[in-house]
Amino acid sequence: MNPHTGFHQRRRFLRGNKARPIVLFPIHDDDREPKVPGDVRQNRIAVYQAQPCLSIEDAAINFPSQMSAQATIRIGTSGFSYKEWVGGFYPPKLPGAKMLAHYAERLSTVEINYTFRAMPRREMLEKWASQTPEHFRFALKAPQRITHFAKLKGVDDMVAHFADVASTLDGRLAPSLFQLPPNFKCDVALLRDFLATLRGKIRAAFEFRDRSWFDDSVMQTLRDGGAALCIAESEKIAAPVERTAPFVYLRLRNEDYDQAGLAAWAEKIAAMAREAEEIYIFFKHEDHAPDLAMRLREMLTGAI
User: Fold this and answer.
1) Residue 250 DSSP label
2) Are 286 and 277 in contact (CB under 8 A)?
3) Looking at residue 33, what is its pLDDT?
């Protein structure tokens, strides 16, 4: 079946009836990571009505407003195991053990925040891989022991272990996210040394949360090391829209994007896709994040 068919049907999910509020679900903050995969973070309350959702195979339609692209574009969310999605993206009463398989039928990639708190285990990654199709990709968030505690210094053994365990995913492994603390100031020499540690072990994207890193010397260092600048947008900070590697990694963290906002990002992504090999896009784990991912996918020809 053509993957670009049936999209108007898909758009009914959380949109067909303008998501009439009927059920309350807890929402978590982006900076609070889950301690275990099934944790639900509870900060804000959002309300949405469940709507049917179609599979990836029935998920898109070509229409004139779509943006042309050459790269393989995968769009997903940060995390997948959220109780607030049950009755909306997930069917009512879907058990947690079946969430990943259901997610992977509808979206093509997921960013795993759990690995930020603890080193991943081979058995866990093997289990996750077995529940997903071959085209699916996992982006693992690097452990905080590397990025926050050691701040990239003296971490050769930890990096080697993380990369070795991550390789369990084999072809399902996306680039890994190295998110630096908000108070971590620019240090080009340190970044260069750390990239040398990563070389040949794992593909990496770096999310800088201090503006001092948004400098030409940093961009060139990333290019030299084959690493991507994580193009992140939030209410607090926005990274430059710049490609520094064969792959592109985006984190769209605002609470919501209207149609115009998504269209603006689709145009930027399509421009980068003409030269990139792969593009990964992750929406913040709000209750409507899966709908945003599918709406953006609708705008990009060839996105899966």
Assistant:
1) E
2) no
3) 38
